[in-house]
Amino acid sequence: MTKTAYVEIHLPALRRNYALAKTLAGTARVWAVLKSDAYGHGLTRVALALPDADGFALIQPDDAVTLRHAGIGAPILLLEGALEEGDVDTAVQHRLELVLRSEHQLQWLLKKAQPVTAWVKVNTGMNRFGFNPERALAVVRQLQATPFCRVAGLMTHFACADQLGTPLDEPWRRFMQVVDATGLPFTAANSAALLRETCTHGAVARVGGLLYNNNPFYPDTRLWPAAAEPVMRFAARIVHVGMLQAGESIGYGAAFTARHDMRIGIVGAGYGDGYPRAAPSGTPVQVNGQRAALLGRVAMNVLAIDLSALPEVQIGDEVTLWGAPGLSCDEIAWRCGTISEELQCALTSRVPIRQIVADATVSAIPDEQTAPAQCLAHL
Ligand SMILES: *Cc1c(COP(=O)(O)O)cnc(C)c1O
């Protein structure tokens, strides 16, 4: 039986968003960030859909090996470097580039004495990982004096790039201290920095959110490129249509009470699928290209919407929950007090994924394992 809730991943839109990132990055290379299963879009699916990508970046070494086995030859950066000592061997074996962000990782590199490629991370205010500028400079000098290690460049990750009111001057000054002293190439920009500060583009921009149509500044749209397109569409079928009389409430906790008679639709998706329970009444959905409002509490498998203004909508009709033109995931996330990434990562494995491999063509491929070949065949 078909599931009432499903996700579509629109690969042509993903490719166009990547091309857009390339244009914005100018001469910088763009490494697509694929951590957390490509922000819930599917690790190998996304990587194989970007055959011309300059490179990829992710966190789990196993994921990088998965990509190598899937035939990905482009550079792959491990954003947190080696998570255990053996990852240094894995990196050498599979040509993975390592971020070097902690003293214990430096000890592993020196002990292993293997031909690794490393990006030395400078702490510019995130204060989780990375070396302070003076120490970073010393680490670079030390590695450059070893015959086996290649220092590819310097890396940093801004704490506040997505907060337009917070200037990047101080983190930038700290980073440039090391860049200027070493003359090394650098990678500093995530999506937010790519969009707001050209000087941060460097040799490589590490772009995640923009590829998936997530505006890091939402609801501020001033720096957001109008050409970016939704990639993930979360949709579900209407499984029941009914009436709510004035004064009647709907759903758990009677959280919404009708002030006038209403036509309502029950949609076959809930928090058990990955639609956020935090979404309040009034959160928009889209039916037949028109907006309708969520009513009452989201349940595990269903949610209710107002169909009063949409008399033609029937059982079996499709409702877009996010990811259509005019209904971004950003808007839904913002209504819930979170960001698109959290919603996308929280989609559950119970939701089947169809990938759209060419514009206006849908292939039903529920299983990630079978996806890549299909996807390439349609490129
Ligand atoms: C996730 C991540 C990125 C990508 O960030 P976006 O804001 O999604 O573009 C870049 N660099 C590092 C170190 C990351 O962890």
TrEMBL record:
Pfam family, one: Ala_racemase_C
Residues forming the catalytic site: 35, 252
Residues bound to substrate: 128, 300
Keywords for the protein's UniProt record, in alphabetical order: Isomerase, Pyridoxal phosphate
Classification via InterPro entries: Ala_racemase (IPR000821), Ala_racemase/Decarboxylase_C (IPR009006), Ala_racemase_C (IPR011079), Ala_racemase_N (IPR001608), Ala_racemase_pyridoxalP-BS (IPR020622), PLP-binding_barrel (IPR029066)
UniProt pathway annotation: Amino-acid biosynthesis; D-alanine biosynthesis; D-alanine from L-alanine: step 1/1
Location of the Alanine racemase C-terminal domain: 231-356
Any one GO BP annotation for this protein: D-alanine biosynthetic process
EC number: 5.1.1.1
Domain of life: Bacteria
GO MF annotations, alphabetized: alanine racemase activity; pyridoxal phosphate binding
Annotated Gene3D superfamilies: Alanine racemase, Lyase, Ornithine Decarboxylase, Chain A, domain 1
GO cellular component terms, semicolon-separated: cytosol
Signal peptide region: none
Necessary cofactors: pyridoxal 5'-phosphate
Catalytic reaction annotation: L-alanine = D-alanine
Alphabetized PANTHER family for the sequence: ALANINE RACEMASE, ALANINE RACEMASE, CATABOLIC-RELATED
Family per record: Belongs to the alanine racemase family.
Role of this protein: Catalyzes the interconversion of L-alanine and D-alanine. May also act on other amino acids.
Name under which the protein is recorded: Alanine racemase
